[in-house]
Amino acid sequence: MARQTRSSSDDSTPSFLPQNLLQYPEKEWCTIDSAHLSALQSSGIFLEGTVFRPYDREIRSDMASNDWLCFNAFPFTLGLRFVFPVFITEFFRITNLRFSQTMLMLWRVLLVLDRIKNARIPELSVHDLPLAYRLRSHMSSRFLFYFTSNDPLILRATRNEEEGKSKFFFVKKSSILGGADYPVKWLRRADFSKLAPPLADSEKRIQAIRLLPEIERSFILYPTSPSQHSSSNMSDASKVPILLDLEEVDNYPIPIQVKKETPAVTSFKPAAAPKPNPRTHASTSKKRKGSETTAPASEGFSYEDPSFTDSLEPMTSFLHKVISWLYILNVYAEHVSWLEIIKPYLCLVLQGLQQDTGMA
Predict the structure, then answer these.
(1) Which partner from 69, 84, 230, 301 sits 20 to 30 angstroms from 116, CA to CA?
(2) What domain range includes position 125?
(3) Phi/psi at 103 (nearest 5 deg)?
(4) 322/310 Cα distance (integer angstroms)
């Protein structure tokens, strides 16, 4: 029988040990509630059989547990799935950082580097990164990449959002692949050059990245090859990127029962003709002498009519998506075979057409 992705309260009193590392814990109440968890369960972002811990406002992201692993929601808004790609998984294995103690920019950098590894430099290693970055703790023992020179290796990735700190959830370790190997506590210090000492040819690979066009070194959120979003041990069908939207739960793929309402049957009654006003009858008849009566002017068509502008929104949104996809195809056409590019994008175009135009 197929396994089900579900929430669980198997442990009525799970062990959570406070580490008291958060600088402003009162500002970091969990905002991933039961509705968000239901959306995550049905999204396909995690493998079947993954057990999510029910929403508990009192649990903080820095709490240590032998049974539960904390995830930030942010990586999944980038199109990542769990299990993460091999390069990103290797980074966390080597550094022993927990997913929840990383700043958002670190995920952006890792995502771009993973793309570069897949498309350009397959030999790229986590051990190469200390030549370009060091791990820096930025308040509350959260880590980010800090440049080792004035020329950042990855561009447009430094922005951080404070609200991302409160968007987290817990997954039962025993329900995910390799769950027992993930760290229990947050790290307080991390010397990147000691954790991942550079290799003999690391400098060569870092310089090769710096020679790439800026667009390939920049963080740009767009649909990419499915292999860049999930581990290679997943089936092709499960690698279709999903961009999680935490702002609108309605966007999640949750089955929704739509109640169909039948319109009420009403009888048609013609409006009664207005009675003529005797006072105006004489003057009106005089004006009509010697001239044709003119029909009242119609209201006409207005481009400012809300019903007209609203009807254009789905097509406008769809055209914006098509333009973005065509731009990316043009950039990467020289480096990836057309077959690998066209297949996932045609699927995305078809899905976008169905969603935006309301096609069945």
Answers:
(1) 69
(2) 6-251
(3) -80, 160
(4) 20
